[in-house]
Amino acid sequence: MSQSAVPRSTWSNRWAFILVTIGSSVGLGNIWKFPYMAGSQGGSAFVLVYLICVLLIGLPLLMAEILIGRRGKGNPVSSLLKVAEETGNSSWWGVLGWVGMLGALLILSFYSVVSGWIVDYLFKALTGFRVETAEAARQSFDTLLGNPYQMALWHTVFLVLTVGVVARGVVSGIEFANKTLLPCLFLILALLTLWGCVAGDMPAAWHFMFDFKLADLTPVVALAAVGHAFFSLSLGMGAIMAYGSYLDRKTSIAHTSLWVVAAGMLVGILAGLAIFSLTFRYGLQPDEGPGLILQTLPLAFSHMPGGGLLAIFFFLLVLFAAWTSAISLTEPFVAWLTERLSIHRPIAAWGTGLAVWLLGLASCLSFNWWNDYRLFGLNLFDTLDFLTSRIMMPLSGLAIAIFVGWAMGRTAVADEIRLNRHAFTLWLNVLRFLVPVGITLVFVFRIFGWME
Ligand code: PHE
User: Domain of 99?
Assistant: First the structure.
């Protein structure tokens, strides 16, 4: 491997790592997907299962993924190879790194298109855009989807922003961007939640999200919640492994993971409360699906005093969240190119960006010109989403649990994770039994009761 010449970067301190990992995890998943999925999947039942999954499956896996990265000190492939070799396992485990890196690029290609929609709406908000009726709101979204040029333009802008950061390097690019964007994100979110309390119907939002009704808890809801826990924690796609590889040996993996998980849940809940309180206040429906924040909310914004300003803040919030996540989707492959092929980082980053951009263009077209090309009824955009978040992420999560839980061996794992004996045994057993059983159940259910 030709990586030894350049010393490997390390995050400035443990807070920097916590911040970048929160940046990766908090994204469109928490602000765009979580509210609309909760909205269309039974509200509180979905929220409850999601929270349980995040704690029982997500947290242990997050720790496992950071562990592999930090022990391997390389890109996802080389980290896995190194740890596998050190612990006497087959080099086939390296395949898992490939699945992650390629999966991350696939996600990035459509993630950037959705983020492009957000940039479009931010731009609209800045130019005083208003919609008076639900019909008009729907139409403006449909017009965007019908216009590949406009979508491609914003997709390009978003990718340039993302790749520009990654090209600058781990500390001066990725860490710096997260340190700047995340405090703004939290500030805006706090502001929006307060706004929701004052101008929205917070009690209704609260009931919708937290009044648990057992009858709403169907397998479909549970499965959607498990899948979403993976997506929102950035699991199984090499992103966390790559970030973990820049973490020093002193930092506690368990502590940092707890912070990340808590922040992700908090953002999802606050964003949900803010969004639903406004949705209910204006008599709108929470089950709009993916258009929730792009159709329902603009309508609410147009009807409330100060709504124009609120819209700008809101779309900035989503943009910052998406940006810091997209950065983490780019890093694994760029790290591989720079370390394995000794390609200069900026060239590796822009080259990766170009490939993702092309694939993203295909996603843009799948809403209009190529709308008729379908696989099992799904267009390319939906196919990529399905393939990555419903299949690749859980499967590689399963493989990571098996690798760290069973294959690596207790000594190496304990040496890296450094928990007290009880906590260690608990975590290891969850990773060995609960996580694989949970993920397998999801697949079995899905095979027997095929559903969206
Ligand atoms: N967690 C990010 C989100 O919620 C998406 C993501 C998935 C990022 C996988 C990195 C890896 O939007």
Answer: 14-447
